[in-house]
Amino acid sequence: MTTKINPFENAMGQLEKALKYLKLEKWQIDRLRNPEKIISVNFPIKMDNGETKFFHGFRVQHNSARGPYKGGIRYHPQVDMDEVKALAFWMAIKCAVADIPMGGGKGGVEVDPKALSEKELERLSRAYARAIADDIGPYKDVPAPDVNTTPQIMKWMVDEYIKYKTNNKKQIAKKEKSILMGTFTGKPVDCGGSLGRTEATGRGGSFVLEALLAKMKLKGRCGKELTVAVQGFGNVGYYIAKFLHEMGMRIVALSDSKGAIVVKNMEKDGFNPDLVLKCKKEKGKLSSCYCVGSVCDLKYGRTMSNEELLELPVDILVPSALENQITGENAGRIKAKIIHEMANGPTTPEADVILHKKGIPVVPDVLSNSGGVTVSCFEWEQNLKGQHWTEKAVNAKLKQKMVKAFEAIWETAKREKTDLRTAAFIVAIKRIMGKT
Ligand code: NAD
Q: Does pTM surpass 0.70?
């Protein structure tokens, strides 16, 4: 949609705004603006047809003042350094917002994973893990999944990392292995992963939204449920839709990269995200999966573009796909009462200004989607301590963390008379500088 927007410039724009509220020295500002280390790697992969191809990847380690770098690895043909630098910076802010003992990092490989066979994907993931192995570790840098990377990919990576670190040793003491497993999070549960991690980003987002709605005393109009449009129907989009649906809200629109579906009767109907997902899996596409209650029927819905979804007259708009979706160009046409950012960087600084003027609160990504990294941190803690927490314990700890993070930001926004994003940055920067 708006590929020309540079995410790192956006991130720095957000930082500049928050800096006006803080008295920092120049070196401190420089420390916030610049990554501590940028690792660039090139590695060959044997393809199934016998050809060898060269791939490029990187890892940006932004800030480690509060603990080891933490952040996902993205596989995308257009992933570039500015995008990864922005994401690493946001991770540092996010970990501080969530008040977990970790810093910010992010990785990327320039690849279209859909064009690879499973074996090629495994070889690529193992090669990337080996290429960055000396720069990561349970006390140094802890990667995780991001767009197009999965628990299975983390399993390959952690296996390769442990082989590399132990010189292919066959027998490793249980404790040593568990600690080494803490180098990657978002692993499958049977391979050192945490219960509750898959759902954590969506679940955490639902806790934050619940806390915000209570503060705003916002309920459905005329006794009706609140309406929600969710852009993106991957891990984050599906789970946030599911949890908000379970909380009694009406999911009136959903989308993926091919387009959006919307209920025909916005006054009455709402999609059942579980049934929509089942239907999408069966049909291989989202369009015409108009599932309301326990029935999927063409009469319930219609398709529209992702751009149109963003402009629907809903109570809550939840961008859960990519960055730069709400921009200076379309922000003026947004009709939602609240924007709850579940994707990273979906709103540009120009859009923020317009939305603020229109009185539309934007719950910033660094708060609303921090449930994922929070449970990743729980996974890391369990690995380091050799423990396995129950899902109930994970979810209870998550709720406590998310509500506390929201309260700190809400209070700061009120005290400083600013928007929630700037408040989140103020809280995070103070915490990072407190450790510098
Ligand atoms: P995913 O790959 O599982 O899903 C992405 C979804 O977005 C898919 O439904 C895809 O079809 C859709 N999409 C792609 N291009 C689109 C477009 N142009 N318009 C509309 N939809 C489009 O990824 P995910 O894990 O759900 O991540 C989504 C966002 O949330 C990303 O910004 C990611 O960085 C962020 N995030 C993810 C997590 C996590 O735990 N997975 C945590 C924090 C933030």
A: yes
